[in-house]
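Thread: zinc ion complex, take 2
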Amino acid sequence: MSKEANIFVLIDALGWEWIKDTRFLGDVAPYRARLESVLGYSTAAIPSILTGQYPQEHGRVALFRRAIGKSPFRRVEWICRLPPALVENSYTRYAVKELTRRINHFDGWFHLLGIPLRLLPMLDICEKSNIYEPRGIPEVPSIFDLLQKRNVDYGVYTYHDGSNVELIARIEQDLRKAEKSFFLLYLDGLDGFLHGNADQPGAVAKVLQFYSNALSSLYGVAASNYQTVRMHVFGDHGMAPTTAVIDVQSRLARMGLRVPEDYFCILDSTMARFWFSSDKARDEIMSRVFGTADGGHWLEEQELRALRSWFEDRRYGDAIYLMPEGTIIVGNSPGEIVSRGMHGFHPTAAHSASAYVSSEDCGKRLGHVTDIFALMAECL
Ligand SMILES: [Zn+2]
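Output below.
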């Protein structure tokens, strides 16, 4: 029998607000804490968990940023420059994505949802490599670099290898073998479910119960095969129910400014990020697109520095407007499905916090998603 199993489970979008009043995994993980997250999306929060660093250090806030130097999309530029009526369809977008992936040998996670193809040659993506491998986050060392350096026999289970159910079955098999001492299981199913169903608490409770039961059973398997079992379960961010939508694209279209001659922008679900070619475009957009009734605000340098998400080269936008919690940016295409839940609001918003539950009493040392890294590193 091996001595110890340290099991870390990242459940995407395991929000504090969604579990704080429940008995989620209470039978094996009675200790719990609220974790503040970072500015941005999972692209930012998961690297923060894996490295213990903030976006400013690991370089990631949102999937797309402005290309500094050569864009990885330059080889498909000729496709992107064709008339939108010809290329803005799911087939071409898939081809552009796959070509870009192959040409650049990308094995990280990215998609082209919501990004007009004609903007791609000006853009870059931040997740080029599989972040669940050593050197997957080249900017700073991650837990996988430490695991490799210390020759730890570890298991990692992510969407790269199967569905949530398959991953749970795979880690269970490994726990029965009792050879490894460190496990990192990443489950992404709750995130997708909450995006579609955050307005139905009863349905969400059932999905949480599924994960709670599955992890409780894994803990039992581990306890039968190891002398000591430590299980830590946490999210990367929370999920806010959608309360309002805003069609930024239509407002911009009415302004008569030219794209990309005057400006270009990326409209994420919760952030409108602009790059300007002239002061006139900057002034018009910053003074006219959003009003007090929208409830959001422009993220100034001082605030971005405080959130440790400031980039001198403005790779994530010359100006970034952040929506208030619950308000999401939607497109103007007919039949668009509006998400019932979203994340990526201000890190201090109530539903931005993720949850931590554990079999171990870690006291008050955990309060932020970046704190998970030290906890993992201690087990090596
Ligand atoms: Zn999500």
